[in-house]
Structures are given as structure tokens and as C-alpha cells.
Specification:
This protein has 16 helices and eleven strands. The protein has helices at about 20-40, 55-60, 70-80, 105-115, 125-140, 155-170, 175-180, 200-205, 225-240, 260-270, 310, 325-330, 365-375, 380-400, 425-445, 470-495; strands at about 150, 185-190, 215, 240-250, 275-280, 305, 320-325, 405, 415-420, 450-455, 455-465.
């Protein structure tokens, strides 16, 4: 029998660590310097710009099979990636509802990747920090220390986690063991007709189906109509359904409208419903000195979803779900796994964080939230929220003062819905004109807006949740929208 080769004569073993750390150090310092310049000068660049054909083609190259020097790889990043972002860190990006990130959070993501911990749980510092950030979120929302929570990818997953717990608690059967087919009476969930689309996806994923989510009409302020809600619950009970959960929205995605949380908490208690608050837009108003009153009652919820990557401006991605009943939360997800048994000492001697959600492997999301909160303090983030709301009020006043603009929905918090409206255009032409204004604002790198339809009326939508935005940016938006509107009107007149 041949002898095994010694380590000295065996083939060289490989690693992904560099052979020369000094070269990597030099490049890493350059990356940091470039990143500081990138953020420092963000206002000087277009908000968004189309990629040239040669850049788009670069992303169609086949799988690399052989090495490329790291310096050359980084050059491709600086040439083909960095100049063509989505744009959400720019002060004039107001589309959909994005966060604008911060440099400390970016550094934190780098450090989290270097440390490399898996946040499935265990006895290590990153897991303790994850718990601490969840505890800070509980404190910001007014939840008791006994409540539980978990960090997730964002609002869609945070809402899904909460609704899974709500379904299991209200099902009346062991859904985990027997499935939704064992539920005696079909469950009904309730939300306003402005509810985010992720809740439909959640209903489908829960096995309940879209019809299980009953959309209730809203009032003139686009908040859920409590009288209509009460009637719908009574109708469903009479028809043999089981009302289970009320989804209150603290900041609708269309207009930022906030349902009356105190009234809904009272109704949920009367009707024995689970009260979930989708606060992915507005829950963090709770820390804003001038606007916290708008979410009064959020601390009474059974569960809350919020997004630190929005008004805490953490780099994507990090959401959070809080659940008042920690045993119900863990009971919805924990499983016994022989390869993950706890031990009295050592790495497996602490709680498993994966028992509060769907992921077993979890990234280290907490550090970017932790570092930015430690650096700035929660009170500063609260003032920035107030600042964005004041900026939205400022833009609203500019719109109301301009005869060619029309405010389409009331400005509740920081979302402004308006349109350019010359008198002579019909509804279809008006929509086309406003879409063209929106697209030209994007293509000229001036600003990025989105559009939506509110109660049948198409409009442009400005969501101001960017810590870099200044009132001069909003002045520019008004000036450029008027310029483009007049230009397009002239072009239409010439056709």
C-alpha cells in the first residue's frame, strides 16, 4: 500500500485570501476615498441616467473562468456600475418610497461582511447586537421588553412574518401540523383599499387566498372607514366567516395616509381581532417630536412592521417585525432540529434567532442600524423625519400657489400627489402629458418622481424621505416641471 503524501509534497492548497495583503490594502484605501467622493459630490451628478449600449453589453459577458487582477475588476465597477445607480441616494430622488442610505451604514455593511457572522443565532457578539437593535425598535414603538421581534429583508417580509403569527393564533387549529385546510371557518383579514400589495402576496402565501383580504373603503383623507369596517366584520360573521386580523396602515404607499390607530385598536379589542400595523412608511413617526401624535396607538398593536432602511436611512436591506406575544411569535416558526440543539456552554448556548422567522441563514443586518443610531442618536433621526414632513408641506404650498398645478390628494405626511393641469386637455391627454413630464425629469437627470392613481385620478407622486433633500431642490422641481409642461404643451399644439 502506497504511503500517503506528506503535507510538504502534496499539491499546494488554495485560498481566496490575497497573496500580497499590502496591494489589497492600497486598493481598499482607494475604494474608501472614492466612496467618500461619490457621496460628497452626489448633488453634482444626474439623479439617474440611461446606460450606454456598451455598458449594458458589459453585463452580458459570459461566466469568467480565469482570474482578472483586482485592480482591473474595480476599474470595471467604477466605469460600468457606479455612474448608473437607481439614484435613491440623490437629494432629488423622490420616487416610490426609498431610503437614502448613509456612509456610516455603508462602512458597517463592510465590517459586517468582514466579520462574516451568520445571524441564525448562537452565543456571539453579532447575535447580541441583533437582539439589541430589535430591543431599540421595541423601545421606539413603545412595545414592552417582553415582546419579541426579528430583523428581516424589508417591509414585505416583516408583514408576512406578522400575518403568519396572526393566522396561527386565530385559526383555532394547529395550522403548522394540520394545514389551513383544517381551519373550520374561513379566516378574514381586513385592511383599507389603500393597503400595500405585499399583503395580497402574504394572503396567497398563507394559503388563504386573495379573497381572504377584505379591502374596506376609505374616507376623504384616504384612511380606513371605521363604520364600513365594523359593518364588514358583522357581515362576515353572519355569513359564517371568522374575522381574524385587522391590518392598519401607518402611512399608505399612495399618499402617506395614516389610519386612525386608536380607533382601530379599540375595535380590534371589541371584536377579538389581531391588530397588525403596517408601519413600513410611517411607524418611525413615533420618534419624531412634531409628528409622533400621528401614530398614537401604535403601541397597542399585536404586531408592527417597520423599515429601518427608510426613515432610519440604513443601507438596503433591513426591515423589522415586532410581536407583542413572544411565545406566539416563536411558536409560529421554531422547529426541533437535532443538528441545532442548544448546549449549556459554548457557541450553541444562546437562543437561535432563526426561530422567529423563515430564514435559517441570516445576514448581519443589525450593525448598520446600530452604528448609525450610536453615532447620531434616535432624536436626530426624529428631527430628520420632521424635516421631511416640513419639506412636503413646503412643496404642497408651492403647488397650491401655482395655477397650472393641481393637488390631487391631501398631503398627510411626506408624500405629495399633484399634476400639471392646463385647462384645455382631456383626462387621457392629461395623463400622457404628466407621464412625459415625469420621464423627461428622469432622462434629463433633474429629479426622479413616480406616478400613481388616487380615486381614479392619475397624478405625479413625490415621496420626500431623503435626509439630503433641501427646499431649493423642491423649488427646482417646481420650476422644471413648469418648464417641461409648457414645452410639451407647445409641442402638442404644433401637432
Amino acid at each position: 500500500m502506497d504511503a500517503l503524501p506528506s503535507s510538504a509534497t502534496s499539491d499546494a492548497e488554495e485560498t481566496l485570501d490575497p497573496s500580497d495583503w499590502s496591494d489589497v490594502r492600497t486598493l481598499a484605501h482607494r475604494m474608501v476615498d472614492d466612496s467618500i467622493g461619490y457621496l460628497r459630490d452626489v448633488r453634482k451628478r444626474p439623479v439617474w441616467q440611461e446606460m450606454p449600449d456598451e455598458v449594458r453589453t458589459a453585463f452580458e459577458e459570459p461566466l469568467p473562468r480565469f482570474p482578472t487582477p483586482l485592480n482591473a475588476v474595480y476599474c470595471q465597477v467604477t466605469e460600468n456600475l457606479m455612474p448608473y445607480p437607481m439614484g435613491n441616494i440623490h437629494p432629488r430622488f423622490w420616487s416610490w418610497y426609498m431610503g437614502s442610505s448613509n456612509f456610516t451604514g455603508a462602512l458597517a455593511d463592510f465590517l459586517a461582511a468582514v466579520q462574516g457572522s451568520n445571524l441564525g443565532g448562537g452565543n456571539h457578539a453579532a447575535a447580541s447586537m441583533d437582539n439589541q437593535v430589535v430591543n431599540w425598535c421595541k423601545e421606539m414603538m413603545g412595545f414592552p421588553p417582553s415582546a419579541s421581534g426579528t430583523l428581516v429583508s424589508g417591509g414585505s417580509m416583516a408583514n408576512l412574518i406578522a400575518l403568519i403569527v396572526a393566522r396561527n393564533v386565530k385559526a383555532g387549529v394547529d395550522v403548522r401540523e394540520d394545514g389551513v385546510g383544517a381551519i373550520e371557518k374561513p379566516l378574514r383579514f381586513y385592511a383599507s383599499d389603500q393597503v400595500h400589495s405585499c399583503h395580497r402576496k402574504a394572503m396567497e402565501a398563507l394559503g388563504l387566498g386573495n379573497k381572504a383580504l377584505r379591502r374596506i373603503l376609505t374616507d376623504a383623507e384616504l384612511r380606513i372607514d371605521v363604520t364600513a369596517l365594523r359593518a364588514a366584520i358583522a357581515q362576515d360573521r353572519a355569513a359564517g366567516f371568522q374575522p381574524a386580523c385587522l391590518i392598519a396602515t401607518a402611512g399608505t404607499v399612495n399618499t402617506g395616509a395614516i389610519d386612525g390607530l386608536e380607533a382601530l385598536a379599540n375595535l380590534a379589542a371589541e371584536e377579538a381581532l389581531w391588530l397588525h400595523v403596517d408601519g413600513c412608511i410611517g411607524a418611525l413617526l413615533a420618534i419624531a417630536p412634531a409628528n409622533a401624535y400621528r401614530v398614537s396607538g401604535i403601541a397597542r398593536a399585536d404586531s408592527v412592521a417597520l423599515d429601518p432602511h427608510k426613515w432610519l436611512h440604513a443601507p438596503f436591506e433591513v426591515g423589522c417585525v415586532l410581536v407583542r406575544d413572544s411565545s406566539a411569535h416563536r411558536g409560529a416558526f421554531a422547529v426541533s432540529q437535532e443538528y441545532l440543539e442548544s448546549t449549556p456552554r459554548g457557541l450553541a448556548s444562546a437562543a437561535w434567532l432563526h426561530e422567529y422567522g423563515l430564514q435559517t441563514t441570516r445576514g448581519f443586518r443589525a450593525l448598520k442600524v446600530w452604528m448609525a443610531l450610536k453615532e447620531n442618536g434616535a432624536e436626530k433621526f426624529g428631527r430628520l423625519i420632521d424635516q421631511n414632513i416640513a419639506q412636503a408641506r413646503y412643496l404642497t404650498r408651492l403647488i397650491e400657489q401655482e395655477p397650472l398645478f393641481e393637488l390631487v390628494a391631501p398631503t398627510s405626511i411626506n408624500i405629495v400627489c399633484f399634476r400639471y393641469r392646463p385647462e384645455r386637455l382631456g383626462k387621457g391627454a392629461l395623463k400622457a402629458l404628466n407621464i412625459e413630464i415625469m420621464l423627461r425629469l428622469q432622462e434629463e437627470g433633474i429629479a426622479v418622481l413616480s406616478d400613481t392613481t388616487v380615486h381614479g385620478e392619475h397624478c405625479l407622486r413625490v415621496a420626500v424621505n431623503n435626509h439630503r433633500t433641501r427646499r431649493e431642490d423642491l423649488d427646482m422641481l417646481v420650476t422644471e416641471t413648469l418648464r417641461l409642461g409648457a414645452l410639451l404643451e407647445r409641442q402638442l399644439g404644433a401637432i
